[in-house]
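Lab notebook, bench 4. Still working through the backlog of constructs that have no structural model yet. Next entry is a single chain of 326 residues. Request: give me the structure tokens for it.
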Amino acid sequence: MKALVYDDVETLVYRYMPDPVPGLGQSLIKIEASGICGSDMHAYLGHDERRPAPLILGHEAAGVVVGGDLDRKRVTINPLVSCGICRACLSGRDNLCPERMIISMPPREGAFGEMVAMSNDNLVEVPADVPLAKAALAEPLACGWHAVRLGADALDVPLSEARCVVVGGGAIGVGAALCLRAFGANDIQVIEPNAVRRATLDRIGGFTAVEPGTATEADLVIDGVGYAATRADATAITRPGGVIMHIGLGEGTGGLDIRRMTLQEITFIGTYTYTAQDFRDTAAAIFDGRLGALDWTEERPLSDGAQAFADIRAGVVAAPKIILRP
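Model written out:
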């Protein structure tokens, strides 16, 4: 098959790779749409030791099953594989499984190719009237769904009465804002420094896109970026007794004002991906329209993927998400 392969820092090559071979209980999926994630960008820049070259990146995908019991089913892929028998899995927190694996991390190749193999348990069937490019958004949106669900439980006020601020207007941030709205939030701001992208966010609806420094206080802050600077902003604008949900994995240290968090009893919760139930719930919300039109993506051929990464790197992409199509 042809695939977009991460060969070295800032080097992606569209070339032939071996076809994936499905194992017991797995299906072969012909990829129709695969989104570029922030973690793919981290790997591309050489900032993710979990994703060494050479490797096929990509884990936000949807396609059509080829052969087997699910032949010709349209599916979106939950890329997170867990053991199913550990304490975390049995308690419904399978995203914390110590044996968890995600496609696009060795030994599992990712979805920036024509095909990928995946466990049938990780496939969610997509209705005929839902475009697969929208179904591929289930993975990034599920990250926001998971964070909003946990954040709402931690708040001391109903989400409908809370002021909510999301840091970052990429797909994770936009997804979190849309999930906040789906969960009943009414006052939502998204902080985005890129004016070109802010103009795109203004057309989505359901939240307000603002420049950094504009948002001054919030009951719930979701950091979808995860750099020291964004954590510092989150700490500064969270009200006493408020909650910070941290999704972003931009850098590992710095930014938190621990003294203020202690004196003002600010809750900080790290949140990683989503549970299998979160993924299914997010997919259902996509299918029934609760997360909006989802028309804020840009589609490009997989063969042009290297240029797409370079454009994201250069900050010239207005859309929060680029979808690659083999």
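Notes after review: The chain has two domains: 2-137+294-325, 141-270. The mean pLDDT is 96. Flag for follow-up if needed.
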